Amino acid sequence: LAKTTQPISMDSYEGQEVNITCSHNNIATNDYITWYQQFPSQGPRFIIQGYKTKVTNEVASLFIPADRKSSTLSLPRVSLSDTAVYYCLATLRTGGFKTIFGAGTRLFVKA
Amino acid sequence: EPEVTQTPSHQVTQMGQEVILRCVPISNHLYFYWYRQILGQKVEFLVSFYNNEISEKSEIFDDQFSVERPDGSNFTLKIRSTKLEDSAMYFCASRTSGSKSDEQYFGPGTRLTVT
User: Fold this and answer.
1) Contact A46 B48 (CB under 8 A)
2) What stretches of B29-109 adopt beta strand conformation (E)?
3) Which of residues A95 and B25 earns the better pLDDT score?
4) What phi and psi, each to the nearest 5 degrees, are found at residue A43?
5) Nearest-CA residue of chain B relative to A89?
6) Which tens digits make up the pLDDT trace of A64-83?
7) Does A95 contact B at CB distance below 8 Å?
């Protein structure tokens, strides 16, 4: 599974759109990009997964360019409750037997 | 909404003691995982379990660790002789085989404190 690199932390204000970029230069053909969110003292929670182009759900959008060497998680109009750690992972589409979390991006949303 | 449950929420044990952490995955899920997270650090994969056997394990998952699905509903992690460095949050996760994505459902975790 490809290694992913993300910024360590980001700050934002309520109501703003937040874009978190993840680089994965060595992504394999079978790898998908999956994002999880983790609040303090809780387990991670799945947000979104994509292979290329754009995926959108009720929580976020995921943009993956054609070369798939990077991806961007977009959170529209963040609120204080979006303060969390966001993890970008390379995974097999339907999951595999080993999931590697990186250090994640600590997003802090201010009022 | 179905959820993964874990017990106990907090376990305090003395070094050298055995501990068993318990998880009840979502009922129709077939893939099970254990992770740990040392305070302030990233989530680390320990082991995955499918079809009643270990599918994959990390270098952390040494002979001191074992997993079991004793009765078709519980999924347990045993640490035979705990060390101070085993102090961490332990998360159980499960996933359905019919999923169209790698959506693992995580439990609330068990905080293990080894003194």
Assistant:
1) no
2) 31-37, 44-50, 53-57, 65-68, 75-79, 88-95, 105-106
3) B25
4) -75, 155
5) B102
6) 999 999 999 999 999 999 99
7) yes
> How does DSSP assign A20-87, residue by residue?
EEEE-TT--TTEEEEEEEE-TTS--EEEEEESSEEEE-SS-EEEE-TT-SEEEEEESS--GGG-EEEE
- Token pair, residue A84, equals 């969390």
Least CB-CB distance to A94: which of B4, B56, B100?
B100
Mean pLDDT of chain B, nearest integer: 93
For residue A110, give both structure tokens.
């201010």
Q: Does A94 touch chain B (CB under 8 A)?
A: yes
Distance from the A98 Cα atom to the nearest Cα atom in chain B, whole angstroms: 6
Residue of B21, B43, B94 best to disrupt the A interface, most CBs of A under 10 A: B43
Q: Which residue has the higher pLDDT, B8 or B51?
A: B8
Which residue in chain B is spatially nearest to A98 when comparing CA positions? Answer: B56
In the predicted structure, residue A6 carries a pLDDT above the cut 70: yes
Contact B102 A38 (CB under 8 A): no
Q: Which residue has the higher pLDDT, A98 or A20?
A: A20
CA distance A106 to chain B (A): 11
